[in-house]
């Protein structure tokens, strides 16, 4: 437990020792503002809720989370510090969790800094705060799933750019797996059960009700399991490929 | 106590380490020598539990490395090749991070960080990010990190690579200053270093152990061991030197005029030679006994393998 905390603390401060966290948070705030006001038409809708804000989160995370996660393991490999870390009395699981928690905390911070929007909506009307809190939690949970995928892709390679692109591709598949882009590929040969299963992996459909503030057990469970599975996958990949 | 049995490592078809068997006890300071690509680093990575062996067994203090890697890693200090460190951290943060991971707490941690900072003279760079340091300082930070928990076993992969002569001297003093019951393994291809700090030399080439003995024994392997070399201030009859008892051969360097007398079977020949010089009043202006040329022996040991293989 202590090791996880030590590693998470190091990773977290390393995000802020380099411009990574600042750039990430700034761009996240600017983009979420643009999406909310110009594309989501927050004012024109005339409703005191934050749905336009949350609806764009999957698309925002699609590019931004791989960007913050790409260095996680790729850089350790490139600089050789993975050898240092793996010969310390730290298990790979602790390292994986520590790194995940640190990056997830940065995402939490970025989300928390969107509070002026909440204040705005509160000032303009009387939103249901419970719904907004639930939607924030849901969004953070989904960000965790994006993060777990991206970190797993980072574990695959030494090259950060490759990690970034792989992560975007895999995340994109998960975002759109409920839509025809992905399902058409299965339509011809797979049975309905397969198509339904693939469709049920969709981040979009699981996030849809979360954005409205409904934290259903199956949606929460889906993202928690997705995080667990992808983190476990990175653990195995690092175990196998740490010295390559 | 490190005990290695029939250790081999393959990377796909390439055999990096080939059936190594050796024991290293407390107090041994082992110089691990070999040409680049001989398998030194791979062996060290297996000793520290970073790489899993393809076959064979490593036991450290009676525990198998594969099964008890975390317990064993706590007892080992390791400087990986190239002294990697987290570049965005300052030296102070980095040492504290390593101390935390090494389970040092409170006052003990403060004391150990201060001790290694003193020992490696890192005061002037404590608040600078590691990535902005010179190569020499980076290496010293790596060394500080390796000894911070006062490990019983110290494994250093090319600790003096990139250091200037003063810093090399410092590192050697550091290694010599470690207490006597510690086990140290140093990989290097600087031969003088081995003679200076080690009490045991292991040479590997193409992954296989070629030589395992003291540095003295390595020198004795040299043709030049105990040979006497002298220069004359002007030409004189030196044919008598080659006829002396115990002198096997004489070579004269045509360019420098330096005469080298090789002994039979490593026996000292200095008394006979000086007696002869005095008797014949040879105009000798410089004379000394050679200790053996390590690089010759090294080349001989590591390349004969190539010819055979």
Automatic annotation (TrEMBL), chain A:
<feature type="transmembrane region" description="Helical">
    <location>
        <begin position="161"/>
        <end position="183"/>
    </location>
</feature>
<feature type="transmembrane region" description="Helical">
    <location>
        <begin position="220"/>
        <end position="238"/>
    </location>
</feature>
<keyword id="KW-0472">Membrane</keyword>
<feature type="transmembrane region" description="Helical">
    <location>
        <begin position="58"/>
        <end position="74"/>
    </location>
</feature>
<keyword id="KW-0812">Transmembrane</keyword>
<feature type="transmembrane region" description="Helical">
    <location>
        <begin position="95"/>
        <end position="119"/>
    </location>
</feature>
<feature type="transmembrane region" description="Helical">
    <location>
        <begin position="12"/>
        <end position="38"/>
    </location>
</feature>
<keyword id="KW-1133">Transmembrane helix</keyword>
<dbReference type="InterPro" id="IPR051449">
    <property type="entry name" value="ABC-2_transporter_component"/>
</dbReference>
<protein>
    <submittedName>
        <fullName>ABC transporter permease subunit</fullName>
    </submittedName>
</protein>
<feature type="transmembrane region" description="Helical">
    <location>
        <begin position="131"/>
        <end position="149"/>
    </location>
</feature>
<dbReference type="Pfam" id="PF12679">
    <property type="entry name" value="ABC2_membrane_2"/>
</dbReference>
<keyword id="KW-1003">Cell membrane</keyword>
From TrEMBL, chain B:
<keyword id="KW-0536">Nodulation</keyword>
<dbReference type="InterPro" id="IPR003439">
    <property type="entry name" value="ABC_transporter-like_ATP-bd"/>
</dbReference>
<keyword id="KW-0813">Transport</keyword>
<keyword id="KW-0547">Nucleotide-binding</keyword>
<dbReference type="InterPro" id="IPR003593">
    <property type="entry name" value="AAA+_ATPase"/>
</dbReference>
<dbReference type="InterPro" id="IPR027417">
    <property type="entry name" value="P-loop_NTPase"/>
</dbReference>
<dbReference type="GO" id="GO:0005524">
    <property type="term" value="F:ATP binding"/>
</dbReference>
<dbReference type="InterPro" id="IPR050763">
    <property type="entry name" value="ABC_transporter_ATP-binding"/>
</dbReference>
<keyword id="KW-0067">ATP-binding</keyword>
<dbReference type="Pfam" id="PF00005">
    <property type="entry name" value="ABC_tran"/>
</dbReference>
<feature type="domain" description="ABC transporter">
    <location>
        <begin position="2"/>
        <end position="231"/>
    </location>
</feature>
<comment type="similarity">
    <text>Belongs to the ABC transporter superfamily.</text>
</comment>
<protein>
    <submittedName>
        <fullName>ABC transporter ATP-binding protein</fullName>
    </submittedName>
</protein>
């Amino acid at each position: 437990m202590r090791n996880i905390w030590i590693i998470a603390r190091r990773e977290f401060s390393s995000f802020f020792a380099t411009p990574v966290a600042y750039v990430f948070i700034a761009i996240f705030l600017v983009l979420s503002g643009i999406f909310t006001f110009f594309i989501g038409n927050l004012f024109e809708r005339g409703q005191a809720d934050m749905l336009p804000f949350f609806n764009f989160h999957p698309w925002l995370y699609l590019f931004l989370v791989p960007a913050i996660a790409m260095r996680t393991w790729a850089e350790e490999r490139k600089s050789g510090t993975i050898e240092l870390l793996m010969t310390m009395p730290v298990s790979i699981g602790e390292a994986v969790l520590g790194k995940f928690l640190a990056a997830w905390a940065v995402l939490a911070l970025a989300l928390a800094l969107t509070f002026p929007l909440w204040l705005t909506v509160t000032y303009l009307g009387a939103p249901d705060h419970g719904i907004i809190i639930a939607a924030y939690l849901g969004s953070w949970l989904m960000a965790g799933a994006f993060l777990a995928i991206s970190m797993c892709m980072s574990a695959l390679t030494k090259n950060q750019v490759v990690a970034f692109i792989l992560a975007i591709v895999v995340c994109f598949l998960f975002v759109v797996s409920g839509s025809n882009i992905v399902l058409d590929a299965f339509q011809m040969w797979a049975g309905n059960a397969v198509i339904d299963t693939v469709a049920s992996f969709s981040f979009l459909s699981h996030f849809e009700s979360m954005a409205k503030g409904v934290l259903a057990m199956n949606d929460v469970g889906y993202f928690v399991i997705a995080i667990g599975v992808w983190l476990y996958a990175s653990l195995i990949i690092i175990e196998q490929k740490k010295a390559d | 106590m490190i005990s290695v049995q029939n250790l081999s490592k393959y990377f796909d078809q390439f055999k990096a380490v080939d059936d190594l068997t050796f024991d290293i006890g407390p107090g041994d300071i082992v110089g691990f020598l070999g040409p680049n690509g001989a398998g030194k680093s791979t062996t060290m990575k297996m000793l520290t539990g970073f790489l899993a062996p393809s076959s064979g067994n490593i036991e450290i203090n009676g525990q198998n490395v594969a099964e008890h890697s975390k317990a064993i890693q706590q007892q080992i200090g390791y400087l990986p090749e190239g002294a990697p460190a987290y570049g965005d951290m300052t030296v102070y943060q980095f040492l504290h991070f390593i101390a935390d991971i090494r389970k040092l707490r409170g006052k003990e941690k403060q004391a150990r960080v201060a001790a290694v900072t003193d020992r490696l003279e890192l005061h002037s760079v404590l608040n600078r990010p590691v990535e902005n340091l010179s190569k020499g300082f980076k290496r010293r930070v790596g060394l500080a990190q390796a000894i911070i928990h006062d490990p019983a076993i110290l494994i250093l992969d090319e600790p003096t690579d990139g250091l200037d002569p003063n810093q090399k001297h410092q590192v050697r003093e550091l290694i010599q200053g470690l207490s006597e019951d510690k086990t140290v393994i140093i990989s290097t291809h600087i031969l003088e270093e081995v003679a200076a700090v080690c009490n045991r030399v292991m040479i590997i080439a193409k992954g296989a152990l070629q030589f395992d003995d003291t540095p003295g024994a390595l020198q004795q392997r040299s043709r030049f061991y105990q040979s006497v070399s002298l220069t004359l201030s002007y030409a004189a009859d030196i044919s008598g030197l080659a006829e002396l008892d115990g002198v096997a051969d004489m070579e004269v360097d045509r360019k420098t005029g330096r005469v080298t007398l090789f002994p039979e079977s490593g026996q000292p020949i200095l008394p006979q030679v000086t007696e002869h010089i005095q008797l014949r009043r040879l105009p000798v202006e410089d004379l000394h006994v050679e200790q053996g040329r390590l690089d010759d022996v090294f080349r001989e040991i590591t390349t004969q393998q190539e010819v055979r293989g």
